[in-house]
Amino acid sequence: MSDTTLIGPQTARRLDVHSVPGPVPMLTPVHRDVDVLAWAAEHRDTVGALLTAGGALVLRGFPVTGQETFEQLALALSASGSVAYRENATPRSHVAGNTYTSTDYPADRTIYAHNENSHTLSWPGKLFFYCATPAATGGETPVTDCRAVLRRIPGHIRDRFLEEGWLYRRSFSPRLGIGWRQAFGVETPDEAHAYAADSWMDAEFDGDRLVVRYRRWAAVDHPGTGEPVWFNHGTFFNQASLEPELRRFATALGVGRLPYNTFHGNGDPVSDEVVDILRKAYEAETTSFTWERGDILMIDNMLVAHGRRPFTGERRVLVTMTEQMAAAATELPGAVAVRTIPQAGPPVDLPAV
Ligand SMILES: [Fe+2]
To answer: What CATH code would you report for 4-85+93-105+123-136+289-324?
Structure first.
């Protein structure tokens, strides 16, 4: 991803842009008064090819001055329409249309690298971020090359995940994190059970606390390139990835009540040592750039994970998502079917974790 030479002089001429050297491929228009929506419509395929090659692409200096143009630009650069959020893990606010604040999570915390919705049966293929106000300090959106992460994980660890997948457990408590009504967009326990069944989850209520367990893939084949990519929330959601302060709180609470946790597909705990190896693989393949007002960051959500660094000041970064993808066994009209590894399917004899 750090190879900015992927935008050669010929491509730059064709797109009427300059390539800006830096850790993430970046384009800036030759003419600052370019009609950005017409430009996007004309060059969608070329920009899409650059995104597939690099995984992430920053557009800097284009005349995008607000949410509406931003969302139109995202749609113009996408093969299919907007995608809604599912099963949120962190709070966010609706801005307008299909645009949201990227997260309302506290400023002093890190958001760990993740591919959006990589643990749900469908997910967006593309993400677009728009920097309305850069932070005073920090607040980068680091990007992680998931093709490279998969290559970097030692064979014996990787193979077990590719064979068994991950087992996720989420606990929705009225007092901790996001509630099940908000996460699943339902009102009653019956509706929550129906949602869980449709989503291939086991669901169990304990009073007003809902615990769901579900087995999912570790990797998927990218539909555009056919390459396998590491695509899951296993490391992010594992208890060993909790920040120290939250980990102390969680230990006092009992790990069974953590809002989320992950296990090997057969229910075995993932050792701290393995989580550490996975975290190091992410770290080694992560890079970032400093946001400037008006920047747009395009991400191929399957090729690249994203996160957020802590910040000070009034950071405002918006996000919109497009191009619905779904696990191949899922029937979802309009979605591109994606092969998952291991093959996705309804839960069978999920271990009690
Ligand atoms: Fe995200």
So the answer is: 3.60.130.10
